[in-house]
């Protein structure tokens, strides 16, 4: 029997209390059953009773069909509660004997009918039943057997959530993308008439507490459609097949209610890539996922059924979920920037009385890295503090204390940067941005940000290509490599040390360099040949760098040359990045300072700061000549 794979803390406490009550009742019943008074009377043989009758020792007799109960005539013995029980023997002489001895006798209904029924039948059955329930309970926390195959009561659709986009702040880009979905849900016929293809599924991706659940509810509220909501873990039950049945049930109910929204929160609980589990128990999850995929393919989007989902771990989702016709629309819900935080604070400040000294913009600037949920929490904390201190209004003192508490909590969880980390990130991103701006062939910088993104990166530099590119030349690729190295190089130039923040950059740079050597024939040592794997990729298909039994197609020696060339490209790019940043140290420092202050810089602001940045001729191009000059 597989063991339960999940626990549900809130339900657990309630049901464990019930379990204890059950144990208690069982114990009481068991005691009752085994210790029941097996009649206080002494059982004697019929012959003995007869002797006693003859001897005049019997004072009174009760006759029933099967028993005779006799009380002694002796008064003290009777007081002691002495009595005899006899199994009745067919004896026509008995009544005569009783009459002769003047013994009082009367007929009696057979035993204590109800009592014996209870003792002999009901009690054992209760015991068994109770035991069975205990066993079931241990096997499966949560609702009793009856719930199998039926979705939870929660599956009742909410008619209009009452939440609107006004309740969600600081995530304007996501809201803009979702407006289209609202339009569609409020008038599916219009879209259908135009022949527009509507996405079937939208997945909201972003770190915890950024308002994904809130946004989904807001879409339902704006479109005024019913909202079915389930959490991924609701599907994953212990009994195989239950999750799949739930999915079927869910889609059936939802289709009957269309237009409506089905929202699966924390999709990663069901949507983890298939085959990633390590135990047999994961069959259940895979079945559920397969059913979900099948239902998403099957339903008719024209009726206005929209599937929404949320996750903060998109990287573990099964790629099949993202195929066209499923969750083909992905909306990023990121942590808010200063302006966003201010807007969120304003939403949550509604109804809270603030003192005159409180400035929400200032609070916003003090809380980088906090999510919407953190900010909501912060205001609540400040209000509680003020109440505890008997204040009429929430003052800046309470707010500051709440900020400190929240920050401390976040730092402990590793979700918030401390000052030193912020400095490093500001310079790292500035390094990327500066190089991207001054190198002639690279894409212009659209935006630099040092707001932690959800997935590992602490900041980001966004470049937009000026035109669609189909071919890239070697100098362009070398510039690209240099920009990738810019973050790490800036850390080295300014702090003379490097952090772990460049992991992703290095990964991407290494991939690119490897492709330049093995696929693009851009290495002098290897010459113009492709040494990619026979399946077309230079790497193993499943794990980068490891070929799974595939033909390698080249020799050990070639492998060594490849490794040498890749290493050389990376090293040179790094050195070039360092050289360029050293030449433009002033601009780098200024850029980092501005970024630190504003957290996000647009392309135009960046250009203004980098006015004086220059490209020394010896580091200008990426061609072989200059490479060697740089290396002296
Ligand atoms: P997620 O689902 O992304 O983890 P939630 O939607 O559950 O986050 O957010 C939790 C709470 O935090 C919300 O109910 C809301 O009060 C607050 N919150 C989060 N993000 C925002 C936001 N962008 N605007 C306003 N409030 C927000
Ligand atoms: Mg959520
Ligand atoms: Zn970087």
Could you characterize what this model shows?
The protein has 632 residues and is α/β, with parallel strands linked by helices. The protein has 4 domains: 42-107, 2-Layer Sandwich (Signal recognition particle alu RNA binding heterodimer, srp9/1), CATH 3.30.720; 149-332, P-loop containing nucleotide triphosphate hydrolases (Rossmann fold, 3-Layer(aba) Sandwich), CATH 3.40.50.300; 338-408, Helicase, Ruva Protein, domain 3 (Orthogonal Bundle); 419-619, Peptidase M41 (Methane Monooxygenase Hydroxylase, Chain G, domain 1, Up-down Bundle), CATH 1.20.58.760. The chain contains 23 helices and 14 strands. Helix 10 runs parallel beside helix 12 (283-298), helix 18 packs antiparallel against helix 19 (503-518) and helix 19 (503-518) packs across helix 20 (556-583). The longest helix is centred in the last third of the chain and has 28 residues, at 556-583. The two termini are 70 Å apart. Zinc ion (ZN) binds next to helix 17.
Query: Briefly, what CATH class of the largest domain?
Result: Mainly Alpha
Low confidence ranges: 1-14, 141-153, 534-550, 624-632
Helix content: 40-55%
How many helices? 23
Number of strands: 14
Bound molecules: adenosine-5'-diphosphate, magnesium ion, zinc ion
How far is the N terminus from the C terminus?
70 Å
CATH architect. name of the largest domain: Up-down Bundle
- What would you report as the Rg, rounded to the nearest angstrom? 40 Å
CATH superfamily label of the largest domain: Peptidase M41
Mean pLDDT: 78
Strand content: 5-15%
Net shape: elongated
- Determine the CATH topology of the largest domain: Methane Monooxygenase Hydroxylase, Chain G, domain 1
How would you classify the helix and strand content by structural class? alpha/beta
């Amino acid at each position: 029997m597989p063991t339960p794979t999940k626990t549900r803390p809130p339900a657990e406490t309630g049901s464990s209390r019930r379990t204890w009550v059950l144990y208690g009742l069982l114990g009481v019943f068991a005691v009752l059953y085994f210790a029941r008074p097996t009649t206080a009377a002494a059982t004697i043989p019929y012959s003995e009773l007869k002797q006693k009758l003859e001897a005049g020792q019997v004072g009174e007799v009760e006759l029933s069909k099967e028993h005779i109960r006799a009380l002694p005539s002796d008064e003290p013995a009777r007081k002691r509660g002495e009595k005899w029980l006899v199994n009745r023997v067919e004896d026509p002489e008995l009544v005569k004997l009783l009459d002769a001895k003047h013994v009082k006798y009367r007929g009696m209904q057979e035993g204590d009918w109800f009592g014996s029924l209870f003792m002999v039948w009901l009690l054992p059955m209760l015991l068994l039943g109770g035991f069975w329930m205990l066993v079931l309970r241990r096997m499966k926390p949560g609702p009793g057997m009856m719930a199998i195959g039926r979705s939870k009561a929660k599956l009742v659709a909410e008619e209009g959530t009452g939440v609107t986009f006004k309740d969600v702040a600081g995530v304007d880009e996501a809201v803009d993308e979702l407006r289209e979905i609202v339009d569609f849900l409020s008038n599916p016929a219009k879209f259908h008439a135009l022949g527009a293809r509507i996405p079937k599924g939208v997945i909201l991706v972003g770190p915890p507490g950024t308002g994904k659940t809130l946004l989904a509810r807001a879409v339902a509220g704006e479109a005024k459609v019913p909202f079915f909501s389930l959490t991924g873990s609701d599907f994953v039950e212990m009994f195989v097949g239950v999750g799949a049945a739930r999915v079927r049930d869910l889609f059936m109910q939802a289709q009957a209610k269309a237009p409506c929204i089905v929202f699966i929160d924390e999709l990663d609980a069901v949507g983890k890539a298939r085959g990633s589990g390590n135990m047999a128990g994961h069959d259940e999850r895979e079945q559920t996922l397969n059913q979900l995929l099948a239902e998403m393919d099957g339903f008719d989007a024209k009726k206005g059924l929209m599937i929404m989902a949320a996750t903060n771990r998109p990287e573990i989702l099964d790629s099949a979920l993202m195929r066209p016709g499923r969750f083909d629309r992905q909306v990023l819900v990121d942590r808010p920037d200063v302006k966003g935080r201010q807007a969120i604070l304003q939403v949550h400040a509604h109804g809270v009385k603030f003192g005159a000294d409180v400035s929400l913009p200032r609070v916003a600037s003090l809380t980088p890295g906090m999510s919407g949920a953190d900010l909501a929490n912060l205001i609540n904390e400040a209000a509680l503090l003020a109440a505890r201190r008997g204040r009429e209004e929430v003052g800046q003192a309470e707010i500051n204390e709440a900020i400190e508490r929240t920050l401390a909590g976040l730092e402990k969880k590793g979700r918030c940067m401390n000052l030193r980390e912020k400095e490093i990130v500001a310079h790292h991103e500035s390094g990327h941005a500066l190089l991207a701006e001054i190198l002639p062939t690279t894409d212009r910088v659209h935006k630099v940000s040092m707001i932690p993104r959800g997935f590992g990166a602490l900041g980001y530099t966004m470049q937009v290509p000026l035109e669609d590119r189909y071919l890239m030349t070697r100098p362009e690729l070398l510039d690209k490599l240099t920009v990738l190295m810019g973050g790490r190089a800036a850390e080295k130039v300014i702090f003379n040390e490097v952090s772990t923040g460049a992991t992703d950059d290095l990964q991407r740079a290494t991939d690119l360099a490897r492709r330049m050597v093995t696929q693009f024939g851009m290495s002098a040592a290897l010459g113009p040949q492709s040494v990619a794997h026979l399946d077309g990729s230079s790497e193993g298909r499943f794990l980068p760098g490891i070929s799974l039994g595939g033909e390698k197609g080249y020799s050990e020696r070639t492998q060594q040359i490849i490794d040498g060339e890749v290493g050389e490209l990376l090293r040179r790019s790094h050195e070039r990045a360092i050289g360029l940043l050293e030449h433009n140290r002033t601009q780098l420092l200024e850029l980092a300072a501005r970024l630190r202050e504003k957290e996000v810089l647009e392309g135009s602001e960046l250009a203004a700061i980098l006015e004086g940045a220059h490209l020394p001729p010896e580091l200008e191009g990426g061609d072989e000549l200059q490479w060697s000059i740089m290396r002296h």
